[in-house]
Specification:
Chain lengths: 288, 330
């Protein structure tokens, strides 16, 4: 009696996982996990790619840049996507990872419509986010206390903003929101707020985009680094990618995706850049 | 015929002789044609019995493994903060300096612990009187159509996903609080108001059960003594149901304590010690949901989040323990 039960138990225990694993096994399965900012682009690219390569199986998931990097380092997924350089993340060995920057995204400071300010110098912006300037009057606006809405600690947008604007100094401890949409909604409705979001979300009449040192926050100003507040969107693989993965990354970097899909999502093609920036924010000109 | 078979034959013959259940047709069976092999083997029903037992045991086993591994996983990661990264546990519990990426001396969760408890207690405090009133109405004053209608309304409230509550909070409650009380509108007060609606149905339905469990005889004797309905409710029903009402409140608090999404959307997510009810703050859960994607597994910021998760797990165990304690006492 015991034997019979044990054997049935074993059968169930063995068959169920096998079945589950079997379901997931396909010839060209590529799992891509990480940055939620990059997710729409990769998802769309994956769909288009699947139409041309019916045997491909591309699964795209969000989870955040940290998740993407740690999953790809652990070998759990083929590609980890990230808004930040792997070098900047503790616990990630960037030497094990291969970096493929696939797009550029600009970041723009935004404020509530009623603050009366359209331009800030980089210094003023830094002073606001480190809590040294606390009233809009101090930067030529209305007499209104400044409410800083920060982005989630460790998120790609915040890391880029703090590195480039605050020069690594700590931002004032304040409200944090993790999605571009929520930030926009809050800034739109709360008097005196300031925050920053990525370009694709900023095309909205109800919020005040802030230019920095009189440079307009538009995609045209990014390739020359005139608008310096931008970041790469990375795809990382562990070591050399396998054949299927390499093929897909090549597809993302191809003219077709870079010329049509990338601008459609609101990003900037990686091929347009006239400068490059390394993980320590050193900017160098490309080519000539 | 072997000795054993002979014995068996005897038993069968005896059984037929003594048969007292006429609808079972043992009589039709010839003692010599009895299939001894079949009789000595487990019957189909026995096998069914064992199969059923095995299935339930298997389910229990799997669930058991699941629970143990969840606790083990959260525990091992949560404790790594203290053992691997050498964070002082008192620092974790009592410091308000939360910036784990800056090193082990910046892992103070006190602000979040205080905020979590504040929203939980306040939400329970506001919701309980309403829940008791609604439950009294449904059990003592009305029990027909109106009570059923209220019941379905409460069930509807339970079914609304927390993200909807959060979105409503962000769109309606936040501006309202900002206009009435000042500040940005994000803070403990807003979170409390949202949680109030979320825990109300939990507390109400359990309180209804509590009142229904009060024996009718108590009410009748009270009425026989000349008490009015309100006197009966106040002096008899409420008192008799006290322990179960406490249980209801604790279940409501457990729900409020663990709620993440709705709170995260309304509380402002600033890891600061709240200095008033409209200053932005962060709870354990809101910090977990907004941070987990941005940390790298195995690093201090990630382990620190696991410690928050461990704290939540321990708190839910405490809530469960309290419920059992109250149940035993009554």
């Amino acid at each position: 009696m015991r034997k019979e039960n044990v054997s049935k138990l074993l059968v169930v225990l063995l068959v169920v996982p096998l079945f589950l694993v079997g379901c997931g096994q396909s010839k060209e399965k590529i799992t891509i996990v990480g940055s939620s900012a990059l997710q729409p682009l990769i998802e769309q690219a994956g769909n288009d790619y699947h139409l041309a390569h019916l045997d491909s199986n591309i699964v795209v998931q969000g989870g955040g840049s940290g998740t993407g990097l740690s999953q790809v380092q652990a070998g759990a997924v083929q590609v980890g996507t990230s808004d930040v350089f792997a070098e900047t993340q503790k616990g990630i060995d960037e030497k094990k990872l291969q970096d493929y920057p696939v797009a550029i995204v600009g970041i723009v400071p935004i404020a509530n419509k009623g603050v009366g300010v359209k331009n800030l110098s980089k210094k003023q912006l830094a002073a606001i986010f480190t809590g040294k300037i606390t009233n809009w009057r101090q930067v030529g606006g209305k007499n209104l206390p400044i409410i800083v809405i920060n982005r989630s600690r460790g998120s790609g947008t915040r890391t880029t903003f703090e590195d480039l604007i605050l020069n690594g100094k700590d931002a004032v401890n304040s409200q944090e929101q993790d999605s571009n949409g929520t930030v926009k909604k809050i800034v739109n409705s709360t008097p005196g707020t300031i925050s920053y979001i990525s370009f694709p979300y900023a095309n909205d009449e109800n919020i005040q985009k802030i230019s920095i040192d009189h440079v307009q926050p538009i995609n045209k100003n990014i390739p020359t680094n005139k608008w310096s507040l931008w970041s790469y969107e990375h795809m990382y693989t562990k070591g050399k990618p396998n054949k299927a993965t390499a093929k897909f990354i090549n597809y993302v970097l191809s003219k077709k995706v870079q010329r049509d899909l990338v601008p459609k999502i609101g990003y900037l093609s990686i091929h347009e850049m006239k400068v490059s920036r390394d993980s320590e924010n050193k900017v160098t000109k490309i080519g000539n | 015929m072997s000795k054993k078979e002979q014995d068996l034959q005897e038993v069968v013959e005896q059984a037929i002789a003594q048969q007292k259940v006429p609808h079972v047709k043992i009589k039709g069976i010839d003692p010599h044609s009895i299939d001894i092999a079949r009789l000595t083997k487990p019957s189909k029903e026995t096998r069914q019995e064992r199969w059923g037992k095995g299935l339930t045991a298997l389910a229990i086993l799997l669930i058991g493994i699941l629970i143990v591994s969840i606790i083990g996983f959260v525990g091992s990661h949560g404790l790594a903060t203290f053992f691997t990264d050498k964070v002082n546990i008192f620092h974790f519990l009592f410091s308000t300096d939360w910036n784990p990426s800056a090193g082990p001396n910046h892992v103070g969760a006190a602000a979040m612990i205080v905020t979590s408890f504040a929203v939980t207690l306040l939400a329970a405090l506001i919701a309980t009187p309403f829940a008791i009133a609604v439950a009294l109405f449904m059990t003592e004053y009305e029990s027909g159509k109106k009570a059923n209608l209220l019941q379905s309304v409460m069930e509807l409230l339970v079914g609304i996903p927390s993200v909807v509550y959060g979105f409503l909070g962000l769109t309606v409650v936040v501006p309202a609080v900002r206009t009435v009380f000042g500040g940005t509108g994000f803070g403990i007060l807003t979170a409390t108001l949202i949680l109030f609606v979320m825990v109300l149905p939990t507390i109400t339905s359990l309180t209804v059960d509590a009142f229904k469990a009060v024996p009718k005889e108590l009410r009748k004797s009270s009425a026989a003594l000349g008490a009015t309905q309100w006197q009966t409710i106040y002096h008899v029903v409420l008192r008799a149901a006290r322990a179960r009402i406490m249980t209801a409140i604790i279940f409501g608090m457990a729900r409020a304590f663990g709620e993440a999404l709705a709170v995260q959307m309304a509380i402002g997510n600033a890891v600061l010690m709240p200095y008033n009810l409209v200053s932005p703050a962060a709870t354990l859960t809101s910090q977990l949901t907004s941070q987990m994607g941005n940390t790298v597994m195995g690093t201090l910021p990630n382990n620190a989040l696991w410690s928050l998760a461990l704290l939540l797990l321990i708190m839910s165990l405490v809530f469960n323990f309290l419920v059992h304690l109250i149940g035993k006492k009554s």
